[in-house]
């Protein structure tokens, strides 16, 4: 049995199709004081059911998390067999450690404890930001990597991709960018980033030969857009004529138009983990193949 908190969530339908399971959407509303009301159909025989919840925790973050936690709590009381939470985009994944003292867990630790407390048996997450993500959980954590999907989409969508270079906009993006570069046998260019505040960054240096190549920036999250825009601007100053962006999670806290209207990107490509309306220059790359491979490992 599959459940989704949003009827229009494309990935939920993909998961249900892969697992050959029905997809249900619970009814969620709010009382006048803002409290959440959640209704789970009693027509379904929940006892001993294997349940898969597909719920991302994108904006509004706190509301998304509480909706999912309340739903898990309701299902566990109905004696389901096991609950797997598929989290396409996991909020707080960038907060594995405390911002003031790295000896302490960050806010992701609190999220992990809440998930486990309500009875989540395992989670499946698409490309969490931090390599330490899994260590904060005491339940099984399965990671879906999408580097193969990105490489495949580049081959299909980017004209003359064989003459491009892959760009990692900061140190954290190097591993993912290197994997894509290796798959496509393309050179890797890396950037040095200086963080001025929580949401303000400056790209200070580009390492690697760009030459006359087009550039493909690869990163996991496009949020405020600072890193992406500063990297693109510096590449443009180096003489790069065409710049493409591939980002796993298109959060766009800055607003999609801020990125697209800056005039720096030829096109921007995101996965469907955070739903966004498509428009000229904004494209969605498919991750169904990686999703299917991981789900078959877990459930079949």
CATH C-level class of the largest domain is: Alpha Beta
Unreliable stretches: none
Biggest sheet: strands, sense, closure? 7 strands, mixed
Overall pLDDT, averaged? 92
Bulk shape: globular
* Class inferred from helices and paired strands: alpha/beta
Q: Beta-strand percentage? A: 25-35%
Please render the helix and strand layout as text.
Elements: E1 2-4, H1 10-19, E2 23-24, E3 27-30, E4 36-39, E5 50-54, H2 61-77, E6 82-87, H3 107-118, E7 122-126, E8 141-144, H4 147-157, E9 164-168, H5 174-184, E10 188-197, E11 200-207, E12 214-222, H6 226-237, E13 243-250, H7 256-260, E14 267-270, E15 282-284, H8 288-299
Helix pairs in contact: 1-8, 4-5
Offer a few descriptive terms.
single chain, 300 residues, alpha/beta, Rossmann fold, seven-stranded mixed sheet, six-stranded parallel sheet, 30% helix
Please explain how this structure is put together:
- The chain contains 8 helices and 15 strands.
- The protein folds into 2 domains: 2-144, Rossmann fold (3-Layer(aba) Sandwich); 147-286, Rossmann fold, CATH 3.40.50.
- It is an alpha/beta fold and 300 residues long.
- Helix 4 packs across helix 5 (174-184).
- Strand 9, helix 5 and strand 10 (188-197) form a beta-alpha-beta unit.
